[in-house]
Amino acid sequence: MTRYRAILALAPAIFLAGCGSSDSQAGPGGVTANEAQALDEAAEMIEERRLKPDEAENGQAADSGTEE
Questions:
Q1: What are the C-alpha distances in Å from 56 to residues 17, 30, 50, 67?
Q2: DSSP code of residue 18
Q3: Is the pTM above the cut of 0.85?
């Protein structure tokens, strides 16, 4: 009987320990924090690659920072 009570006393603590917040839980928009960060980084990369107004007239892409 003592073993049964000990298990019953520890069960809620064990279950609640698994309820912590993590980066894999979906946030606003249904994406995880890691996915949201990856999307933000991808958006920044796209913005950096967009044509500048004067380069768009010439049909040249923005400088990617590498020389060939």
A1: 56, 36, 9, 20
A2: T
A3: no
